[in-house]
Amino acid sequence: MPGSYSIFLKMIRPFLLLSLFTSLQTAFAAGDPILHFTFNEASGTSLIREEVSGTQFSVVNLFNAPERIPAVQGSALRLDGYSTWAHSDYALSQVDKQITLEAWYATDAFPPATDANRNAIEGAAIISQMQSGAGFALEVGPYGNVSLDFYADGKKYVVVTARSLEKWVWNHIVATVDLEARQANIYVNGNLWQSMNLAAHSSLSLASAAPLYIGRHTSPATIEGFNITSLNGALDDLKVFNTVLGPAEVIASYTNFAPEPVAATLFEDFEGTNYGAWTTEGTAFGSQPAAGTLAGQQVVSGYRGNQLVNSFLGGDAPVGKLSSSTFTIQKPLIRFLVGGGNHPGRAEVRLLVNGNTVRTATGRDTEMLREETWDVSEFIGQTARLEIVDQVTGGWGHILADHITFTEEQALLPANLYIDPAVRHAGDYLRPQYHPMPNTAWANEAYGLTYYEGKYHLFFQKNPNGLWLHFMHWGHLSSPDLVHWQEEKTVLAPSEGFDNFGIWSGTTTKDPNGKPVIFYTGVDLAKAGIGLALPKDENLIEWEKHPANPVIPAGPAGYLDFRDPFVWKVGSTYYMIVGAGIANGGGGALPTYKSSDLVNWTRITDLYRSSNLEQSGFFWEMPLFYPLNDQGEYILAVTPLYNGKPANVIYWIGKWENETFTPYFTTPKLLDASNNNTLAPAIGTDAEGRITYIGIVPETRNVGDQLKAGWRQTFSIPRVIRLLQDSTIGHYPHPNLCRLRQNEVLLANRSIAKGSKNNLSEFGGNQLNLKFSVKADSAAKFSLQLLKNDAGTQYTAFHFDLEKNLVALDTRYAHAQEALREYTTADYVFEHKEEIQLEVFIDHSVVEIFIDNLLVLSTRSYPAQSSQGVDLLVTAGAVEILEARQWTMQNMRSSTGAEVCEPQDLPTQFRDLPKEVVTGFKRNDEVRNTIKLYPNPTKNRLTLELPAHLGAYEAAFYSSGGVLVKKKSCRLPDRRSALRECPAALTC
């Protein structure tokens, strides 16, 4: 399979069989399951068989073809997080005082924490059958914690692990309830992760009248009609017993398919009557560990046993420190539980090696302890000690800690969760094939186009659990050449703390050692902050969040929202801008910071702001600030939000000197002339030094059709930009794209008669690259029609008007389904004495056109599958196709050559309109001497100011070649009219 996804190799380790024989006998003695699903049906089958009773459970799936993938035993049911689960009205029997739930589960993403209204929801369930006051559910939470909910005699219990599941591996999960022993346990991969003591009860309360769900929770929460308490990942070998599996039996069941769990060495569990060998300072920790929650404190949970370290003694005001005795580091991992306040450097758990602090961990402003793991392999053999510190007296000024162990990494079974879009989205003729995009589900803004160690990396906003903007992650595409793309593992996901609601937009930069780092927006239920993440490997596949996060905890006062950092470096100093808007209609703004170490940031004067709401909106998203040369000239681009107008991307060019940006023009220009069809560009420099960007080309069809498709959004092809002599930006397609070309068709010297049709019958298709060289006279008007049906009633068109110097994008007749239908124009000055160069990229529902390697327009088109014609129509003037070429394009996963098609003779600037001159006035010299004509020369707008109270006049504007461009006149009406004078200014 492509990408960095681990390929699962199903194997049984023979050397384990002998040592496991006794344990397996014990496991078999525990009794047969009363419910068993193997999920070994053929992929696409919409039923699963319950092996004990033979009952068939129905499988729900958006595409009516639920997938099966290789698993630890045979096949597993592939779940998508929003539309796939199994269910039946099945009543469990023979369950009284004991129950065991067992399953193998692998995932690439955990379920969302809230619904669309930010209300907390149940975790997605492996198995669930609940009703008011009865039932059970084995759940996976939004941060990977495993939860067992159940009722006994109508009383609800919730057992939650502090530790989180690993992604991309098969996790063996066992949950047991034993009312006779008064205990509930959760085991993961052979290890006991959580235990709870129970009150005395006579029996478990089942919900036999409720449906039994596999892969989703009984309690639904929906977005766009889909249930989001559904699991994402894969489920295998699900069993329910009416007995309890003990520790040896759990290990035996696990090690039948996986290595033995690694034993941990307990360093401290804080279960004694005092702190033992730990020394105490201050009053925050008292003289002994706390028995759970202290007076005045919210309920503390997630600790092991009966006691823990809790510095809330007397509230948040006391301070203090616990210091362990010294020890020699002998194992590569230190694991412990931590909770309480998020105050790096002041309230934390520390590891000191040879007297220097080398690792720290804080709480996340919650009283639930979570497991933290430190990799300390680099310090093996060195002397260390641990400190638990509380030096904070304000809110959340306390620390919680428990259960410190030394261990080694356990080997886990890799899971191949790769989603093949050719299978998942088979038959979808509108899905692009050579534009970069993820394999399925939701994608949005692109981030941090990075070239590193011979490979390009494009990150993007991703929801792996559904088709909508919710519980955001960072996805990852990689490519050797900006043309052949593959999706990698998700690099960032929400976690408890400042980014618990989502990992939102950001960018990449390189640290002082030249290694890429990520800056992102972390969002909780109240505000946004800025986080930093670091790569764990040279392939940029695995990432970890910086322990000091958030490096900027919130935006400045008086600004609307605060998100989308962009970072660049000048000398040894890093600078960051963050998208924002000034409150109360103040317009777009970019709060600006600087740093020498990427962690500590100081605010400086805003890079730029604008109060012109009509021109540049009230809020700026996805800013970028990128050097165009070594003379200090930069492009500043933002995606503004408007009231009542679609989003677009606008830009300024200017100088960056002495931490000040001075634009060359104040009225912003459009990056893509289609106005609202390419958004949020990610920018970077390729291996050859070309400044390249990739933006999102958003969906414009109705939401219902997007949801049916199972994917939303795609990205543009890579585009190269250049700074032109007129301080604007020119665009051309990246030269590597020609590697995808095949099956060339060539035609030449074809004059197109006015009103004729079917002029390019040799051309056609919906996965094409087209190039035209066109000669047209000054009065010419012609249209390039794409994705056209035989009747000529459906097409996407680009219109060219040489007389008015306009280009128009026309999708009024483009679609076979409900979608945006638009006719938008862009100024573009033609010179009829020169050839017009057009290059077009058609990729099913995406169309992009480059004009003279200067102007670019992009759009979405949703025609019928049979609409694949290409035509060029002339409505005025003379038009000749000097040369035209068509190539079919291979998909982005194909194997191709390494061609580079660098364009030649690139224009140095956009053409200006011809200079206008005033040829005469029918008034005296006084009038002639008081007129004003500006700007002169001009590109596309000319203003003529005349003396006040001039009365009637006629003004005609001619080009230097004598061609009439515009005529305007004012005739005074009769004396009874209120009008007594004509306007004193005309704009052409």
How would you portray this structure in words?
Keywords: Disulfide bond, Glycosidase, Hydrolase, Signal. The protein is mainly beta. The chain folds into five domains: 31-260, Jelly Rolls, CATH 2.60.120.200; 266-407, Jelly Rolls (Sandwich), CATH 2.60.120.200; 441-733, Glycosyl hydrolase domain, family 43 (Tachylectin-2, Chain A, 5 Propeller); 736-889, Exo-inulinase, domain 1 (Jelly Rolls, Sandwich), CATH 2.60.120; 925-987, no CATH class. Helix content is 5%, strand content 44%. The chain has six helices and 71 strands. Strands 1, 4, 5, 7, 12, 13, 14, 18 and 30 form a nine-stranded antiparallel β-sheet that branches. α1 (14-29) crosses α2 (247-255).
Question: Any key phrases for this structure?
Answer:
71 strands; Tachylectin-2, Chain A; Jelly Rolls; 44% strand; mainly beta; 9-stranded antiparallel beta sheet; globular; disordered N terminus; 5 domains; 8-stranded antiparallel beta sheet; 5% helix; 988 residues
What can be said about this structure in brief?
Its EC number is 3.2.1.26. With 988 residues, the protein is mainly beta. The chain is 5% helix and 44% strand.
Domain count? 5
What shape does the CA trace take? globular
Number of continuous helical runs:
6
- SSE-based structural type: mainly beta
Looking at CATH, which topology of the largest domain would you report?
Tachylectin-2, Chain A
- Low-confidence spans: pLDDT under 50, at least 5 residues? 1-29, 916-929, 972-980
Distance between the termini: 60 Å
Mean pLDDT, as a whole number? 91
Q: What's the count of strands?
A: 71
Strand content: 35-45%
CATH superfamily of the largest domain: Glycosyl hydrolase domain, family 43
Percent of residues in helices? under 10%
CATH class category name of the largest domain? Mainly Beta
In the CATH hierarchy, the architecture of the largest domain is: 5 Propeller
Radius of gyration: 33 Å
Biggest sheet record:
9 strands, antiparallel
